[in-house]
Write a structure and sequence with these properties.
Elements lengths: L1 H29 L6 H18 L4 H24 L7 H23 L4 E2 L8 E4 L2 E4 H23 L1 H11 L1 H6 L4 H27 L1 E2 L3 H16 L4 H21 L5 H15 L14
Antiparallel strand pairs: 1-4, 2-3
Helix pairs in contact: 1-5, 1-8, 1-9, 1-10, 2-3, 2-4, 2-8, 2-9, 3-8, 5-6, 5-8, 6-8, 9-10, 9-11, 10-11
């Protein structure tokens, strides 16, 4: 049923969009791609598991604690892995990001092992039927929470003082510094917010699929990066739109064509869009003067 698959696609797409926001915000500020972001998402998922099962906390308490811990992790990663080489060649930044990604994966394997862990969130699954459409309370919660978080982020970026500083820094780091903006604070805030959103996405994935494993960050990180590119990297609304488009396309493709080519459908739509609009759906065209 088409409506059922659209709902499934919106659920997965909302998760992709939350992760993609971290990619697009960091790129918008520093013009670098944080390839460790997918593994930050994975660590956030495991931190949620640690707080709920390891310490016995209810999910509503574990959620903000895991998000805060992951936000500090993101800020720490920026300070030790990116800040010292920020002015270096982009290749050095890329290598550093890949190094952080490998470190986080191996750290997760060392602590939690290499297997898949059941994610007992403590939330009973309630199913609602509307004719042939079947919805669970988990799906409704994921979609609603994703939309709320995206709205809050959009308001923060466009209506608050720190949001104005973020947009100024995105336009020109040097000009923002000359205007008295503490750009280091802005960069740390950006990494923290992006990492917190990735953690929330990680907990939602664990709750929705009832499973988490150390390499989960690779697949979700890659899809979220594709969503950021599709929407126009550097554009927050673009990352949101790209996430939902990727989620819906891969869900419809898997349902009506072949589940084995699920990833191919997602990246196929990315290639098609970029052929006709290289800057992405909502991305801005830039002209380099020489």
């Amino acid at each position: 049923m088409l409506t059922q698959q659209l709902v499934n696609g919106l659920t997965v797409g909302g998760i992709y969009a939350l992760i993609a926001l971290g990619y697009t915000m960091v790129y918008g500020i520093l013009k670098i791609v944080n390839f460790a972001h997918g593994d930050v998402f994975m660590m956030g998922s495991f931190l949620g598991l640690f707080f709920t099962e390891g310490l016995g906390m209810p999910l509503l308490v574990a959620f903000p604690l895991a998000a805060a811990a992951t936000a500090f992790m993101g800020i720490f990663i920026e300070r030790i892995a990116y800040r010292p080489i920020r002015v270096a060649d982009k290749l050095a930044v890329l290598i550093s990001a890949l190094g952080v990604s490998t470190f986080l994966q191996n750290l997760a394997m060392l602590i939690w092992g290499t297997g898949t862990h059941a994610y007992n969130s403590g939330i009973p699954v309630i199913t609602y039927r509307f004719d042939r459409l079947v919805l669970s309370n988990i799906q409704i919660g994921v979609i609603v929470l994703c939309l709320i978080l995206m709205t809050v982020l959009y308001l923060v970026v466009n209506k608050t003082k720190i949001g104005i500083a973020m947009r100024a820094t995105s336009e020109s780091l040097v000009s923002a510094q000359l205007m008295g903006i503490n750009t280091e604070k802005v960069i740390s805030f950006t990494f923290g917010i992006g990492s917190a959103l990735a953690c929330i996405a990680g907990v939602l994935v664990g709750t929705y699929y009832d499973a988490v494993y150390p390499t989960v960050g690779y697949s979700y990180g890659l899809k979220a990066f594709a969503a950021a590119i599709l929407g126009g990297i550097g554009s927050i609304p673009g990352a949101m739109l790209g996430g939902f488009v990727i989620g819906i396309v891969e869900t419809l493709g898997a349902a009506y064509l072949s589940a084995g080519y699920r990833d191919a459908f997602a990246f196929g739509i990315l290639i098609i869009v970029l052929i006709f609009r290289p800057s992405g759906i909502l991305g801005r065209k830039t002209v380099d003067k020489v």
